[in-house]
Amino acid sequence: MSLTDTVSPLHALSSRRSMKFLRAPAPKPDELEQILQAAMSAPDHGALRPWRFKIIRGENIAKLADMALDAVKRSGDPRMTPEKEKSVREWMASVPLFLALAAKIEDGKIQEQEQILAAGTAVMNILNAVHMLGYGAFWSTGLGTYVEEVQEKLGFDSLDHRFLGFLAIGTPGCEVPKIERPDFRKFTSEWTGV
Hints:
Keywords: Flavoprotein, FMN, NAD, NADP, Oxidoreductase. This is Putative NAD(P)H nitroreductase. The chain is α+β, with helices and mostly antiparallel strands. The protein has a domain at 87-173: NADH Oxidase (3-Layer(aba) Sandwich), CATH 3.40.109. The protein is built from 6 helices and 5 strands; from the N terminus they run αβαβααβαβαβ. The protein has helices spanning 9-14, 29-39, 60-74, 82-94, 112-132, 148-153, and strands at residues 22-23, 51-57, 97-104, 136-140, 161-172. Strands 1, 2, 3, 4 and 5 form a 5-stranded antiparallel sheet that branches. Helix 2 runs antiparallel to helix 5. The longest helix has 21 residues, at 112-132. The N and C termini lie far apart (50 Å).
C-alpha cells in the first residue's frame, strides 16, 4: 500500500525526508519501474533528458564499495580513515539498492546549469516516488562522487557527464522521525517592481 492511499499527495510530499539507515526489501521490480518512470516527468528545457541512472543491487553493491572506497583512498582523501571505511562498508551492506546518478551534458543552446538542474529534478521525482510507495532513500555524495575514477568506472565519461552521486533506496531501518520544517516565509519575498 502506498503512502498516498492514506494521506493526501501534498502531505506525502511535505512529509518526505532522507533516510540513511535502510534495509531490505528494496522496491519490487514493478515499483522500481514506477519510481524510474516518475523521473521522466521532470522539467527539461529542450527535451534533452540529461538524467542517467545505473542500478546497482545484490552482489554488485559489494563491488561498488570496493571500487569506490579504493578510489577514494587512492585520491588521497584524508577523511577515509580505516574507521570511516569500515562504517561505510557496513552501511552499504545493509542497503538493498543504489542508483548512480549523472547528468549527460549536451553542447548547444541549453546551458549546462539547466541540464544539471533537470537531472536534479528527475532525482527529486525519484525521491518523492520512493517515499510515496512507502520506502526510504538517501542521496549520498560520500562514495567518491568527486573522484573522477569512480565516475569513469561507472561508465559516466567525465568529458560529457557530471556525476551527481548515489541514491540509497530500501525500507527504513527505524521509525521515520518527524521533522520540523522551516516556514516558507523565511525564504520568500514578493517583488513589487521597484
